[in-house]
Each structure stands twice: as structure tokens, then as C-alpha cells.
UniProtKB/TrEMBL annotation:
Annotated GO CC locations: membrane
Statement: the UniProt record of this protein carries the keyword Hydrolase: no
Domain 4Fe-4S Mo/W bis-MGD-type: 8-60
GO molecular-function term, one example from the UniProt record: 4 iron, 4 sulfur cluster binding
Keywords: 4Fe-4S, Iron, Iron-sulfur, Metal-binding
GO biological process: respiratory electron transport chain
The protein's name in its UniProt record: Molybdopterin oxidoreductase family protein
Residues shown, of full length: 1 to 705 of 856
Keyword hit for 4Fe-4S: yes
Amino acid sequence: MPHPATGTRTTATHCPYCSLQCGVTMTAGDRPATLVPADFPVNRGGLCSKGWSAPELLDHPERLTRPLVRAVPGDRTSPLVESTWDDALDRIVTAVRTTQDRHGRDAVGCFGGGGLTNEQAYQFGKFARVALRTSAIDYNGRFCMSSAAGAAIKALGLDRGMPFPLADVAEADVVVLVGSNPADTMPPAMQYFDAGRARGAELIVVDPRRTNTAKNASLHLQPLPGTDLALANGLLHIALAEGLVDEAYIAARTTGFDDVRAGVAGYWPDRVERLTGVPVAQQRRTVFALARGKRAIILSARGAEQHRSGTDTALAWINLALALGLPGREGSGWGTVTGQGNGQGGREHGQKADQLPGYRKITDPAARAHVAAVWGVDPESIPGPGRSAFEMLDALGTDGGVRTMLVLASNIAVSAPDARRVISRLGNLDFLAVSDFFLSETAELADVVLPSAMWAEEEGTMTNLEGRVVRRRQAMSAPDGVRDDLQSLAELAGRLGAAGFSGDAGTVFAELGRASAGGAADYSGISYDRIDAEDGVFWPCPQTPAGAPEHPGTPRLFTERFATPDGRARFHRVEHVDAHERPDAQYPYVLTTGRVLAQYQSGTQTRRSRSLQLIAPTPRAELHPDLARTLGIAQGDAVELATRRGRARFHAQVTDTIRPDVVFVPFHWGGGASANALTDPALDPTSRMPAFKVCAVAVTRVGVA
Ligand code: SF4
């Protein structure tokens, strides 16, 4: 209800950015809108600078409010000019038809994002398979969560980032964080770690940088990037040698341990110290802390997972957790800290190349039959698996590759590895359509740009890092000329002759629930009303028969059995392999990338926020003082970083918080300061995750401060 005097109204919704999905209360009516943090069970009144600043962008002068098209159709050197929705959608439909007539259905591709609502992600997957009948769809979560997801499915039978509520972290006696920096990426989450620390719990951080999270830790392990697998195997070696493994748990709840036992035999502590740089004493202290904690949690994140061996690395940490008897025990376990706002839900509803809604395999005949029945199509008409994200991008414009592409909620010109190669591939397309709020670096390359609604202007659901499904509620109308992606997809599907697409979030959520029923990520018992009443509902939450009590949702997984056919978790023997690129005479240092507090993902939004720009206006390359001295670099000097892919320039941040052999740059910028112009696209064979977190680099001073 609007306020009777001011005409404003308040709406409970969630921050648009990271996977914590902090609850906020928005006041809107008179623009500009404002927000305050809510006492939601996740953020408990906390909010970070990104969340506080989010309303600034709703009225930003660069906001797109009209579709843009090329002044000369087909000529991307001609300017983008404002047009009508009719014209923009017509151009997309014409391009789709022309491309598919000439080159086949798979020549039209879709690229989605982990920022889409569950409803939008579901609709995008259905749009690709039903309206376009193409196998060519994947999303930017392939660059984010795919390694941990692949490992969790192999070992535990199910991927839900954290298989327990965040509140468990505050109750744990020891938490080991591997390649995760929540103090900068999701500061309100630190209250859980801080509560544990205040009780005397151990927080052990594994990170090549002494991050703000590591500064709060009781112990900081500082391994060389790309050696986390060796470290985990080494910790398990010590646990075995010291009789710390939980043999009863291993016998009752797992299979495959003997092979792993043999596999870690060669990971002697001194060898692991040589490989990783982590002293033996620190290895031992970590293992004893984990084994002696009544409640113990291991959380990994992108620092450990964005590697060519990312899946195996996540498996190594799961092996350790299983050997110590942690998963499924109350207040204990292994989990992964999802990054993007809907990084969890984004991978459950069918926008992945190999999956259908409900986190089902697209190759599974029963899954295809179930989803086809919900969609009202012949199961045979649903295409098979397509290429993974980078493989699809790398083949753009080639024979057998995608020639016309629709991109939603993703700025791949900045976020993809070897970004300049990807930009060049985008130039090979016959036609590119991008939906976004702003003219991102990817949208700048498009033939058609659709202006999409922002978070406060749309309805839907998001699934946070705990697997809690929350409501994104509309707090205000979108500007004239702007549409929700759900509506755009429904309109496009209709123009392509496909029936059964709705622009209404509630209708799509109900259908998503039916499509997910019986799948791993079962949402069929979740409704908007239940989410409202219960502050979110944890999946899986199947629908119960009429008259039976509602399923309560599942905050904690694996308490009785794992999601494997026999209910037992699987150990997997994994071995350390050297990073795809190692330092050499030409590129003598290790480059790693990550985030800073006041920016988010590819920066499409946060680089336009005036208040965030005051905090983090430019990207900085972190160098240890010893390395800076060797190279004659002083604080603030301009430095050029060069790898086998390209070059980029940054200002030097000389700091002793980083290893002397490692250089760190944030990945939120494009152009001449593009971290991903440098990164290595070598792919993990299981997850197809690129090796974002380690490559060889040369550093040169090119200007003084
Ligand atoms: Fe938003 Fe994440 Fe910050 Fe919370 S922690 S305010 S969800 S960016």
C-alpha cells in the first residue's frame, strides 16, 4: 500500500548482487528510491557498500530505456540508434530464421547468466530448446561454479553449494576457507565467522593473499596458486598417519576410500611444503584442528576451483571432509561459496548446455520425457547437449559454430578468459543481440540491444548460496520502454511461432516447479506464498499429495544418506598436476585474479556507481615489495602485465599481503585494464572451467606514479 501522505511504498526484496542475497526494504514511489537492510535471516541487518549503493543505478543517466539497433542493418561500424521494440524484435527474429535456414538450428545460440532470476533462467533454457530448437545454450556460471558443482555431483550425488544453512558456520568449532574472501566479496557473511571466532573457534584461511578474511583468521595458509589439490591430499596424508580419520563413518557412509588412501600415500608433508609453500607445521595444525573440532566445516570457492584441475581440486577437499566424517553431520561438512546472485538457481533450471530443469541430465530419456510433457512437446524434439561456454564462444562464426547469438545478463567481452580472443570471435558473428541495463562492452558489439528491467522493477525468485529460494519483489515500475527479460523471451517465442511462453513470473514459477518435480533440485512444493511466510524455502522441497502436510524444505542435506543410488558418498582418487602454464624466463611470475570489495563481476553496474567508484575507481596490480624492488617499481607506478594472450596496464599496489612470486589483479574492468585479456582459457576436462586463477606473467614498469 502506498504511504497516504508521501505516496511512497515500502517493499521487502533482496540486494541485486551476490549470492548472499541480503534482505533489504526498499522505499520507492518518488525516484530516487532508497533502501535499508532488513533483519532477514541471512544478513541479519547487515549490508555491504554494493548493496547500499544499488538504488543509484535505477535512475542512472546511462540506463538503456529504448532498444538500440544498427543504423545500417548488418553493418556494425554504423552507430547504434534508438528504435522500437517491434523493430528490434523483428530484426532478431529475421536473423534467427535466416541463420537457421542457411546453417541449421544449432547455428543460433543463447548465452545466459547467473544474475537471471530462476524464472528467467528457466524460460531462457526452454526458449532455446522449444522456440529455437537449438542445443547451443550455456551461461557464465560455467566460468564460476562448474568445477565445484561437478565435484559435488560426483562425490555426493547432488550439487547444492552449501548443503547446510549459513548459521551452521557460526556454530562450528573450526572453519577452513579455501580460496574464498567473504570479508571483501560478501561482508555481511563475516558475522557468522566472527561469531565463531568470538567463541574461540578456529578460522583457517587458505589463500595466496593475506586478504581481509585472512587477517581475521587464526591461521593463514598461503599456497602457490594452483596447488590446493596437493595441499588437500597432504592434509589427508597427515590425517591417516596420525590416525585422525573417521573409519566408522568411512565404512558406513562412503565407498572408494582404499584407492584414495593409496593415492595420498605419496603426499609427504615435506613434499607438499615444496609444492605448495605451506610449512609442515601449518599443515599439521590444520588437520588436527579439523579432526578435533566437534563441528568442522570446509568451504571452497573460486580460488581453488577456477583451474584446469578445478573439479579434482574440489574433490580433494571433499575427500578430506569425508575421511574426517564431516558431511551430513550436524554443523559440519563441505560446501562451496557461490558467487553470483543466482549462481545456484542459475545452474538448476536448464540454461546449461547439458541440463534440463530440475538439475536433470539432458541425455536422460526419463528426464527428457518428463520435461517434454510439461512443455507440451515431443521428447525427440528436445536437442541434445551443446558446447560448454568457452567452447561455444571460441567457435563463433565457424562452420558448425554459432552464427547468431542472444546474450542475457552477461558481459562476456570482459568476463570470458582470453577476452580479446572472445571479442574477436564475437566479431565473426552474423548477428548478435544483447539484453542489458547498460551498454556493456558486449552490448557495444551488438546488432540489437534490448533494454531490460533491473532487480527492483521485476518479480521473481533467486536461490542463494545456501539453497534458500527467496523472492525478488517488484518495488517500482520499470522506466517506459524497458521490459523484463521474461516478457522479451515470451514475445520472441511467440514471433517464432512457439506457444506456451508467459511473461508473468508467477506463472513461470509454477511451471518451473512442475518441470523440476522429481528432479534433484525439486521446487514443486515451493510457492511465492510459502517463501513470503517462511523467509525463503530450501530446496529440495517436493510437492506432497493433497491432504498431506507440506514438505518443510531441506536446510541440511545428507544427514541420513547421500544423493547417490546406494546412499553412500564416493571418494575419488585425484592427483596434483602442474598448472597449464608455469613461470619461465619470458613470463617469470604467477598471475592470479579475483574481486575487490566495491566492484561486482564484470563491473557493468558497479563501475557506473558514483559511490562505489569513490572506493575502487581503478584496478590495481598487487605486487610484493620484494618483487617491486627487483623490478624497480614503486607504489602507484604504471605497470604493464603481459601473458601469452595479451597485455594490460594497471597501477602498482605494493603490498606485503601477497606472495613474492605472485601478482594479483581484479577482473572487474575491460579495455586496457582487462584482467581477462591475460587469463588462460585452458579447460578443466570435467567441468570445462577455464584456468582463470593461474597463468605465467611478465611485469614491466611503464610509467612513474
Ligand atoms: Fe549485496 Fe552481497 Fe553485499 Fe549482501 S553481501 S549487500 S547480497 S553484494
